[in-house]
Amino acid sequence: MTIAVSILPEQQLAALNSAYRKAVARKRLRLLAALAVFLAALIMSSIGAEVNLRTFFTYFGNFVSYFDRILTLDSGQRVWTNVGEWFWGLHKWLKLLGETLLISYVGTLLGAVLAFALNFFAAENTSPARWLLFTVRRLLEFARTVPGIVFALIFVIAFGLGPMAGVLAIAIHSTGALGKLFSEIVENADMKPVEGIRSTGASWLSCMRFAILPQVSAGYASYALLRFEINVREASVMGFVGAGGIGQELIVAIRKFYYSDVSAILVTVIVTVFLIDITTGWVRGRLFGKEART
Amino acid sequence: EDWRAKYPEITFAAIPAENGSGVTERYAPFISYLSKELGVKVTLRVANDYAALIEGQRAGNIQIGYYGPASFARARLTGVKTDAFVIDVNSDGSKGYYSVFYVLAKSPYQKIEDLKGKNLGLVDPNSTSGNNMPRFKLNAMGIDPDAYFSKVVFTGSHENAVLALAQGTVDVAANWWNADDDSNLTRMLNKGMVKSADGTVMKKEDFRIIVKSDLIINSPYAYLSDLPEDMKAAIKKAFLDAAQKDPEAFKKLSDGKNKPWEPVATEDYNKTIELIKFVDNLRKKAS
Amino acid sequence: MLVLEGLTCRFGAKAAVDDASFQVAPGSFVGVIGRSGAGKSTLLRTINRLVTPTQGRILFDGLDVTSLRGGELRQWRARSAMIFQQFNLVGRLDVLTNVLMGRLATMPAWRALSQLWSEQDKALAMSALEQFDIAALAAQRADQLSGGQQQRVAIARALVQQPDIILADEPIASLDPRNTKIVMDALLRINKHFGITVLCNLHSLDLARGYCDRLIGMAAGRVVFDGAPSALTDLVARELYDLEAADVMGATPAPMPQGVPALGTAAAA
Amino acid sequence: MLVLEGLTCRFGAKAAVDDASFQVAPGSFVGVIGRSGAGKSTLLRTINRLVTPTQGRILFDGLDVTSLRGGELRQWRARSAMIFQQFNLVGRLDVLTNVLMGRLATMPAWRALSQLWSEQDKALAMSALEQFDIAALAAQRADQLSGGQQQRVAIARALVQQPDIILADEPIASLDPRNTKIVMDALLRINKHFGITVLCNLHSLDLARGYCDRLIGMAAGRVVFDGAPSALTDLVARELYDLEAADVMGATPAPMPQGVPALGTAAAA
Amino acid sequence: MSRKPEVNAAELRGRYPQIFDRPASSRMATPVVLAAALAIFAFGLVDLDFSPSRFISGLSQLGWISMMMIPPDPGSSLPLYLKALGETLSIALLGTTLAAVLALPVSLLAARNVVPSIILRFPVRRLLDSIRGVDTLIWALVWINVVGLGPFAGVLAIAVSDFGAFGKLFSEAIEGADQRQVEGIRASGGSALHEIRFGLMPQVLPVIAGQVLYFIESNTRSATIIGIVGAGGIGLQLAEQIRVLEWQKVSFLILMILVAVAGIDFISGKLRFAIIGRRAVA
Ligand SMILES: Nc1ncnc2c1ncn2[C@@H]1O[C@H](COP(=O)(O)OP(=O)(O)OP(=O)(O)O)[C@@H](O)[C@H]1O
Ligand SMILES: Nc1ncnc2c1ncn2[C@@H]1O[C@H](COP(=O)(O)OP(=O)(O)OP(=O)(O)O)[C@@H](O)[C@H]1O
Ligand SMILES: [Mg+2]
Ligand SMILES: [Mg+2]
């Protein structure tokens, strides 16, 4: 081993160390205080939520019991011994699944377009005016914070029963969620190209179109795809407004204890989630895989 | 009595027959009565889903459950070892109720045949008066609801079905009905809860019944079959004595509408079980 | 003729440019030199109006640049093309589109937004690229190019703006020696061939001396030197850079620096 | 003594380093020069074993570095400290912790993971920082420092590894002239004072000549020059860089280049 | 005025045909994809019964509903609402924290830059997908079998279903981390664990913290699980009040949720600042 550093004299070192400790101590104290607050909140919550670890461990064996039941046919056999019987409703389910995907697609697209239109105003670095930034941010916050189900319930009263209310509810909520995420991407964008284009005499719109958009579109697509996946699941909550799709069918099967139907629909849904995940992963890779790595 | 040592705490679970928000307040005095009477702590749980109650009893951690007739039948049908012990009794002494189809009085619909292609509002897949009986009845009339109506929706609760009808979200709604002065609708009207889409408070005359079903047996209270016998006896006694020993608590449960509970046996629900089996069989046929 | 009159630009309490006054004759190649933080970038950015001056005026052929707003301001930016140290290209767009950005100020918004470039503009952009031997790369993405190539794209973009003056902010700071020469030669060519005025920030005194007709030295926001390169004595240079003159002047350091610097004598941060 | 025997490193079909063989004597300061893409970075990264060589051997004092795995490999990495162009510090950790990263290989995992540094290590890290006049910044986050300061932190990290050899991959490419001097002086100091071998990639021939005892020139992955700086003739330099020698050698260009270069004569890309 | 460079368009066109006359395939690609996306959208609108007239009349109805919401008024139910809000907050905080703690190690296994082998990563990713694919109602029922009805089952149901989502989100954050910092640790002789602890974690923790806080927020709002397991919850109250058309209570509840979420935002900002420093937050 080589000696590469001459250790400082005791005294000098002590002075430096104490300066470091003092600077770090403040940070560390803040960190500890934050952790303490967080822990206290957790403990209070676990009392409020009636956490009981003894029951949890005593009866943990029951965890599989529900899965055991949904993997059994009415005849008492395992589901995979008779796939035809298990997936008796496949045709109907695929149709409902298609409907769910469509609801999610339309809702996500509407939401993404609205979020796209608003997000440049909600981003610190591109918003043309402070008041606009403030207003749009509050608007997005509202759209995001009010639960989707509330919009659905209100819309069903306003627009009547049917998928439209559900789709609009999904769209509004997506606008809020995506608008925030989109504007965060914009805030992380490199501003040098904007400056470059601005210096040529381009308008604000052109700067967004040519300097920001090429940088952020891959990120937008990525978040919109993720949102699409979330909305596929959200759509089931919209069942009662007549926008149920496969989710509503699943809930009926759960409530009526049509065990093998539950597992069959679940498998259908999970395979769909696989496909969406793989596809979105592939699209993300195509859109910005290479740049992200270099 | 050693069952108290084994069950120092018992759970009583109910499904909101009306809207969830009111249930806790409504049950609070009765729960404390029960606790006092049994000498153990009783915890109330209000689940807004039948399935949760059924699963809870199956797992053995809900000792007493308040079911609807259909969900009780469903529990039995799926192998939950639970027994009905008392039954609600209506103000007129009857132990059952009916399923009816309401339409708005100002609408032109007089009979079910007028409603082809309209929207039907049911209550919940497991509700007897809100789903199973209406389907049974429609089937008897030769109607397949999913093909006959433009849309069939579960509104989630009896109240919601009435509200959906009042606001025009659906054209016809299924609901429970006891007597002319005792139905979900009258209870809601008394509270001024029913408002039309433009906000005006509605009256009984604004609704019309176009179909009424056969009698459906009332909701049971059920305990787990494998509880100790003396414990079951104690619970049953506490329920039967409730109206006498703590009339205030008992009255609060049904706003004074119900008479004291009466004993009932699981077998009394066989007809309901048959009804559910019938509805289940419709399922695979329909597709 | 570009005229600066008492130009001052403050960020908070700090004056990044402090009471700068000078004139630049059409067709000249002026170098701006000075230490990091002296205000060179801010000076150029203020002239382009990327930064709004706090005080003073900028006049160009009689036009008061300081008072422009909206469309007129954009026209001025188009007339005073900027070139940046970090190129400031849009990495994900192809080279041709990057060059066409220089035409944005001259076309209707809807055409620009839908990328409907006129044949004329495309030809202009291609010929600018050709001048710098990168026309073959027109369809490539800008971020796939080397630094030197990117800077040439940026110069092509500046050129299609058909500017009256080019403001170059350390255009070669991120480049290796080979590309440095290519880029500086390109600027010189534009200056001499088309007579476009060039105002160029430079770190390296050697380059400034080699290429510029005139040098402006800045320190702490003020103009402290203004004259021909030959007038820049070692003394002035030392003052400007606050360093040993030998280091500044880029003379080859002695093969082995006189004695190894002792421990703990590194310059303060 | 570092010995490379026929070292080759391929990425797909391309040989980034191609059959490189040379020896580096202990205590020498060796510069590696060559154009962009010549394989300089890959060479250094292979020696540190961040990249696994395709063929050939690396020996250090008789130890076969190419065959190391697991804990031994990590020990070797600790012995051959790397310094990167982009510093490669952990931005969100404070400066002292970043320097302490250099001690990871010498301590039990549980201590490291729970950040229980020994007093000794802390003293070592603090002293290393003080050597570069940045001990006062020890508690700051690394990403709040300027480029020159960050690179000094990186060098301090390398030092506390108590390495036998330092591999510096264009350590000054992101720095301004002033910081360049500070960082290169620091490397020289380490080399001369502690006798640690330094292998340093450099873009600038001037710097290479100024600081190195010996230069290794690479082109297309092959070693094409190996000798004293004084042996690097203009001819070799021209070949290495594919440029006019005068441009490479950093001689002051003629005050005004002879005639303006004609349009279309810019050097091919 | 400067001289303008002269341009011979025709000649240039001849020299660079592919620039001036791009092949139809590359020119049409974007419009075709856009048209396809729009076609599906239009089909969706028709299939899902969208009608402009209903939309317009619905908007006026919405306006009327908003009028009815003023002023917000909890009636006599304020204590009930506060209790429900408290319950919901506890369940959301606990469930989400649990999910995050469990998801962190698993997400490492699902990240390309930590586990380069696709054979190892694939099953982990599919496991996460499966968990996300299972409806929360099912998770609620599964946990009722274990711990019975009550808020604890809600905590567990949220923990499991968010675990699936976090696993995916975290692994994406990890994949987006700056590899140079990790390389710096590796080059100094750090082990894989060191690389994760010192190279990755400082980078991804702020991102992760942001996502966890967002999920706490969104769980606070959602009604489903918490109502099913018999723990009341503010979302359930809200849904009930809309059903019975108590608009003033509805707006009051919405305000309560907005305030609670703003509160979470505020506290979490402080906490994040304490944990990772001001710059990362800003
Ligand atoms: N947007 C800004 N906000 C606040 N201060 C700024 C801003 N831009 C520049 N400054 C400050 O103004 C001073 C001059 O900066 P400027 O970038 O013009 O210097 P420079 O001479 O270009 O230096 P360099 O050689 O590092 O590019 C610096 O102290 C800088 O910190
Ligand atoms: N991980 C990799 N995968 C594929 N090719 C690589 C990889 N790393 C380097 N290369 C290729 O190997 C060649 C040598 O690269 P290297 O980075 O060693 O050059 P360099 O001399 O350091 O250049 P520079 O001066 O630009 O840093 C280049 O052509 C490069 O594209
Ligand atoms: Mg500058
Ligand atoms: Mg390199």
UniProtKB/TrEMBL annotation, chain A:
The chain crosses the membrane at residues 31-49, 102-121, 142-172, 264-283. Keywords: Cell membrane, Membrane, Transmembrane, Transmembrane helix, Transport. InterPro entries: MetI-like, MetI-like_sf, PhnE/PtxC. Gene3D superfamilies: MetI-like. It is a multi-pass membrane protein. The keyword Cell membrane applies. Residues 97-280 form the ABC transmembrane type-1 domain. It comes from the Bacteria. Its main location: membrane. Belongs to the binding-protein-dependent transport system permease family. This is Phosphonate ABC transporter, permease protein PhnE. It comes from Bradyrhizobium guangdongense. The gene is phoE.
From TrEMBL, chains C, D:
It comes from the Bacteria. Keywords: ATP-binding, Cell membrane, Membrane, Nucleotide-binding, Translocase, Transport. InterPro entries: AAA+_ATPase, ABC_transporter-like_ATP-bd, ABC_transporter-like_CS, ABC_transpr_PhnC, MetN_ABC_transporter-like, P-loop_NTPase. The keyword Plastid does not apply. PANTHER family: AMINO ACID IMPORT ATP-BINDING PROTEIN (PTHR43166), PHOSPHONATES IMPORT ATP-BINDING PROTEIN PHNC (PTHR43166:SF6). Belongs to the ABC transporter superfamily. Involved in beta-(1-->2)glucan export. Transmembrane domains (TMD) form a pore in the inner membrane and the ATP-binding domain (NBD) is responsible for energy generation. NCBIfam families: ABC_phnC. This is Phosphonate ABC transporter ATP-binding protein. The gene is phnC.
TrEMBL record, chain E:
It is a multi-pass membrane protein. One of its GO terms (cellular component) is plasma membrane. GO terms for molecular function: ABC-type phosphonate transporter activity. Its main location: membrane. This is Phosphonate ABC transporter, permease protein PhnE. Residues 85-268 form the ABC transmembrane type-1 domain. It holds the Pfam family BPD_transp_1. The lineage of its organism: Bacteria, Pseudomonadati, Pseudomonadota, Alphaproteobacteria, Hyphomicrobiales. InterPro entries: MetI-like, MetI-like_sf, PhnE/PtxC. It comes from the Bacteria. It is found in: Cell membrane. Belongs to the binding-protein-dependent transport system permease family. Keywords: Membrane, Transmembrane, Transmembrane helix, Transport. PANTHER family: PHOSPHONATES TRANSPORT SYSTEM PERMEASE PROTEIN. The chain crosses the membrane at residues 28-48, 91-115, 136-160, 196-216, 223-239, 251-269.
